[in-house]
Hints:
Order of helices and strands: EHEHEHEHEEHEHEHEHE
Shape: elongated
Number of domains: 2
Number of helices: 8
Protein name: Nucleotide-binding universal stress protein, UspA family
Pfam families: Usp
Distance between the termini: 17 Å
Family: Belongs to the universal stress protein A family.
Mean pLDDT: 82
CATH topology of the largest domain: Rossmann fold
Domain UspA: 1-139, 149-283
Structural class: alpha/beta
InterPro entries: Rossmann-like_a/b/a_fold, Universal_stress_UspA, UspA
Strand order of the largest sheet: 3-2-1-4-5-10-9-6-7-8
Strand content: 15-25%
Amino acid sequence: MSGQIVVGVDGSPAATAALEWAADDAARKSAALKIVCVREPWAGDFPFHAAPGLSDALREHCDEVLAEAAARAGRRAPGIDVATDQVIGAVVERLKSESETADTLVLGSRGSGGFAGLVLGSVGMGVAGHAAGPVVIVRQAVQGVHGEIAVGYDGSAHGEAALEYAFEQARLRDARLHVVHAWQTPAFASRAATYADLLQETFESESRMARQRLLLWRDKHPDVPVRESILCGHPVPALADASRTADLVVVGSRGLGAFGSALLGSVSHGLLHRAHCPVAVVRPRKETR
């Protein structure tokens, strides 16, 4: 990690909300803030399709967006180091590159201009599933403080990375941590009443193991108050519900479910659409992409 928070901006309301979140996070971590505007190449940038003045106009627009963003960040978090950079290329690829040297990459859920066409799910799948580190997706400006960080935990390597990030966020904010462990019953369960006792025993065993694993994390972070919700059900509704009273909800980019081989798991993908607060999608940095 570089001690640097990177945020993508394009002048849209969601990007402005992401900028404010990133500035706050940089201040909490005593980190630098890098503001990036990605300008996708147009046909007019190439010799046979040159449109006089178009490239200069686009460059000037990005410069204005960056200048305004830097000024806003300075007002939001006085004292942090702020740098700006205008880069040309495919949005997803350039943001993935930025994540390689960033502590965290922060994005708005929907953009305009350079981010046109990248709706919520596309950002999550295109960037969060491939980024080298944590990606925070911000839908709208923060309206209030709940003093709680929610995190989904399933014991996978991605779940462990998510839990580490969530503990760090809770400590920096002096907030409590809400750990959600949702055990989803097998698909045949609804048609197998004869297995009810076995399913209950399995759930109880899963619950005990989850609590035992969390004891190690509690010992590692004794200064962070923790509450646990261990339930039987799909994790997306459970985490979406937890996000109603959270300042941030954190998930691994993929977990132990049936979609374990996907770059962006069904839980993180589903949560990006349904959460009521910013979502951090975390993957282990040492993992080969």
